[in-house]
Specification:
The complex is a heterodimer of chains A (355) and B (517). Chain A is an all-alpha fold. Chain A has 18 helices and 2 strands. Chain A is globular and about 60 Å long. By secondary structure, chain B is α/β, with parallel strands linked by helices. Classes of the chains: A mainly alpha (355), B alpha/beta (517).
């Protein structure tokens, strides 16, 4: 029966479209972009400015992807801001000073070791959460304090500065034009390498979430951990994977940021974890668990990046910028809650209260 | 019964939801001190009617009179002020607070005079204790709610209702989580309330309870009231016929299955303080019923077999070979499936679709190179079992939370069948689902047994145990009290073993060797 088959195909395609709940966020992002373009067409869409926005998205998108994974499984990772500083510092330290009697090592080994450290810290979080039943808020708060403290202790408070021209710096400062040796290169050439890395990570995590058994299990664990366990899901391993990924992505972001700043400094990344969580939430991730997507995380980071940049372009005071970003976060969450029907109940109840 | 004596009269109540007429022109009346049983299949409109009465929904048409006065119930708080209290299956209690604090939640008595900013804890506790004593509950008002059993929590809910002077108490499936003894003490409370002139509307799926406690029974079907009669005139057959709209010949359609070689042997299974030295054998094609009071360790035993909880000692053999099961994953690998007691919290991920729920345990069988999911294969499998079990859904992507109890249960069964298990453990497989779906589940169990699957069925409904089991294992206080053959088992005999009146014990000849089974 080919006829029924095509109909089935269509309905599942339609329902998939209906499931694309990020469409609202995408729409808001386009509106925002158009608004800033309308206000300052001369600056806003210049390749150099778009590159600034893309660098912002690369940083917070990467962290937000990690948070989305953790939040889907009803956890939270508060350590990523401090981990950024810590991993940036140890990467610079390994390349510039060396550890103890070990001489400085090359760029690539230093980066790989740093990523490994980040992943191990994530596994450490996951192990505490799953095996010892420590609330994720607490264990990652512990790392939040420890990581920044260690970073400051290693450097004695001073940044580890790279000489300009150090090959490591291309990672955070370079763009496609520089990497591929293009002349000029226009908009495509202005795309930062860090943004390309973000897109690669996004594709990989998106595929994991949507096309592998592990992804299905992540959502199942977030939706109902006991039901998942009784369905034979290794719930501990699934959760540890999510924390490990978050740790890995924090380390990767830390490395990129150190490269961009040209130094490993213990003061970088303060409150970044909250920005990453905000980006995840604006992108439709539910703090109750079980819901969240990679596309949402990136769109959330993009909204924040475009707004932040747009406000700078419009010369809005940085104090007011924070106020506006806060308002946007609240509106996004209220809207999302209402869309799910939660908010309407409250309003109905309020209206129907007996006088 | 004269008009003025009624505490509640609902007249011509109708309510439509998008696409469905949930209630059409339903009447309901309740006298003080009357216990009214409201019965009907799932989706018959019982809950909708009660939600209208308790202010959660607004009616479309119809009139409601409380003690002869017409009222327009505008919300849950208003209903409460009118003296209507509803006790849901899931309790609304704060587990880390005392019983007294829960009973007086948001209405805590204050200290006199200037102290009115502060809660008068002593008075609160003594008043709470008085309420608890009034319903004959043996609970201390200072205990924390999390230390209470399900039955005791129910008593707290009832006391809470009395604290706001409820004159109409609605109980939605109050007995579904209770064992026989606890049901009896709940009924004791109901009788006490009745003497105090409180009207009670009692929603239940267990007909036997209707005849034990109710004064009158009202039957709803497809949103309409199809019958009402004093309990003296009603018979179970009559009520079932009203509920389903057809004659039900035999509720339990067990077909004969070929019983084969031993499939699962459990020896000396123990978890200290919960399950003591449980041994039995399950054969191919057999349905082994687990009977006993709540707390006898039946659910705990099957969870141990499934690896959901760690066991202290004991051996499990499948087809004669010892297997190590330390987690549900091991059980899956050994071909064991578990349909848990609490399907909403343990059986299904309600936020996921029917499709995702069905394929969750068998994801690894639908992959290419063990990592890439074969979407088409997933769809095919899910559709196959949706058809096989006759799960009524609009589409596979429908979220599990929007299914009726019966369809949810079938979805849980489907997810295990998709793994093609050798052994299926079903814990209270038909609790809280309507008569029609129940019959379908029973037919399915018979069919699976005929296909050679061994089934363990834990059930608190004796008629179900007697109707479906080939053999019946009776548990009492964590031990196997007896293993009875279908022919020799009677309700009385099972209850005698379950309550510990009759002791088979571990020394009984029935347990000595599998050969004797």
């Amino acid at each position: 029966m080919p006829e029924t088959d095509t109909r089935k195909e269509k309905s599942s395609l339609l329902s998939q479209l209906g499931r694309f709940r990020e469409i609202n966020v995408l729409f808001a992002l386009i509106l925002l972009g158009l608004y800033f373009y309308w206000r300052r067409p001369d600056i806003f869409v210049k390749p150099a400015n778009l590159a600034v926005i893309m660098r912002f998205i690369a940083t917070f998108g990467m962290l937000a992807i990690g948070e989305v994974l953790v939040i889907i499984t009803r956890g939270i990772d508060l350590s990523v801001g401090s981990m950024l500083a810590f991993t940036g510092v140890i990467t610079a330290w390994m390349m510039l000073k060396g550890v103890g009697s070990i001489p400085p090592i090359g760029v690539l080994p230093a980066i790989l070791i740093t990523l490994l450290v980040g992943t191990l810290v994530g596994i450490w979080h996951g192990t505490f959460v799953t095996k010892l039943k420590i609330p994720p808020f607490i264990i990652t708060l512990g790392t939040y304090l420890m990581a920044r403290g260690l970073a400051a202790n290693i450097t004695r408070g001073y940044p580890q500065v790279f000489d300009s021209g150090h090959p490591f710096l291309i990672l955070g400062q370079g763009d496609l034009a520089r990497l591929l040796g293009w002349e000029g290169g226009g908009l495509i050439g202005a795309i930062p390498i860090s943004f390309v890395i973000l897109l690669c990570i996004a594709v990989i995590v998106h595929i994991i979430l949507n096309h592998t058994p592990l992804g299905y299990r992540i959502y199942a664990v977030g939706g109902n951990i006991e039901a998942a366990r009784l369905s034979g899901v290794n719930v501990d391993r699934v959760r540890i994977f999510c924390y490990a990924t978050s740790g890995f992505l924090a380390a990767l972001t830390g490395v990129i940021l150190a490269s961009r700043l040209g130094q490993g400094t213990p003061v970088v990344g303060s409150a970044y974890e909250l920005w990453a969580i905000a980006a995840a939430v604006i992108g439709g991730t539910s703090l109750m668990g079980g819901e969240g997507t990679v596309i949402g995380a990136i769109l959330g980071a993009a909204i924040m990046g475009v707004m932040q940049n747009g406000m700078v372009v419009l010369n809005i005071s940085s104090y007011i910028q924070d106020v506006i970003l806060g308002i946007v976060l609240v509106i996004a969450v209220v809207y999302d809650t209402m869309r799910r029907g939660g908010g309407f109940d409250f309003i109905k109840l309020w209206i129907s209260r007996p006088s | 019964m004269s008009e003025h004596n009624l505490i509640l009269r609902m007249e011509g109540i109708s309510k439509a939801f998008p696409g469905v007429q949930a209630l059409s022109n339903v009447d309901l009346e309740l006298a003080p001190g009357e216990v009214l049983a409201l019965v009907g299949e799932n989706g018959a409109g019982k809950s909708t009617l009660m939600k209208i009465l308790s202010g959660a929904y607004r009616k479309d048409t119809g009139r409601i009179f409380i003690s002869g006065q017409e009222v327009e119930i505008s919300g849950p708080r208003h209903a409460q002020q009118l003296g209507i209290a509803i006790i849901y299956q899931e309790f609304n209690l704060a587990p880390n607070q005392s019983v007294a604090a829960n009973i007086f939640m948001a209405r805590e008595p204050r200290r006199p005079g200037l102290g009115c900013l502060f809660v008068d804890r002593r008075r609160m506790e003594s008043e709470a204790q008085k309420l608890l004593d009034r319903i004959g509950a043996r609970i201390s008002a200072t205990t924390l709610v999390r230390h209470l059993s399900v039955a005791e929590r129910q008593m707290v809910e009832i006391a809470k209702a009395l604290a706001v002077d409820a004159r109409i108490i609605i109980m939605d499936e109050p007995t579904s989580a209770l064992g026989e003894e606890e049901v009896e003490s709940l009924f004791e409370v109901v009788r006490t309330l009745k003497e105090q002139g409180i009207g009670i509307i009692f929603i239940t799926h267990r007909l036997e309870e209707v005849f034990r406690i109710a004064d009158r029974v009202v039957v709803l079907r497809d949103g309409a009231r199809v019958g009402s009669m004093p309990i003296g005139e009603a018979t179970p057959e009559k009520v079932i016929q009203w509920m389903v709209g057809r004659e039900v010949g035999d509720l339990f359609q067990k077909k004969k299955a070929e019983i084969g070689a031993p499939l699962l042997e459990v020896r000396g299974l123990t978890r200290r303080g919960v399950v003591e030295n449980v041994s039995f054998t399950l054969r191919r094609g057999e349905i082994l019923g687990f009977a006993g009071l709540v707390g006898a360790g039946r659910t705990e035993t099957v969870r141990l077999i499934f690896g959901a909880d760690p066991k202290d000692s004991g051996e499990i053999l499948i087809e004669g070979k010892p297997v190590t099961i330390t987690s549900p994953r091991d059980a899956l690998a050994a071909g064991i499936g578990l349909v848990p007691e609490d399907r909403g919290n343990h059986g299904l991920v309600l936020t996921l679709s029917v499709l995702e729920n069905i394929v969750l345990p068998s994801l690894d069988r639908h992959t290419r190179l063990r990592v890439w999911l074969d979407r088409l294969g997933l769809l095919k499998t899910a559709q196959e079992f949706v058809n096989k079990l006759n799960i009524r859904i609009a589409q596979l992507q429908q979220k599990a939370m929007f299914l009726s109890g019966g369809n949810q249960q079938k979805t849980v069964v489907a997810k295990w069948l998709a793994l093609r298990p050798r052994i299926l453990i079903m814990d209270e497989p038909t609790r809280g689902i309507d008569v029609g779906a129940k019959a379908e589940i029973h037919a399915l169990m018979s069919q699976l047994a005929q296909e050679g699957i061994g089934i363990i069925m834990v059930s608190s409904e004796l008629p179900e145990i007697l109707g479906m089991s080939d053999r019946i294992l009776v548990m009492s206080e964590g031990r196997v009290a007896a293993i009875l053959d279908r022919e020799e088992a009677t309700q009385e005999l099972i209850m005698a073993y379950a309550s510990g009146e009759k002791l088979g014990g571990a020394h009984g000849p029935l347990l000595a060797s599998p050969a004797a089974l």
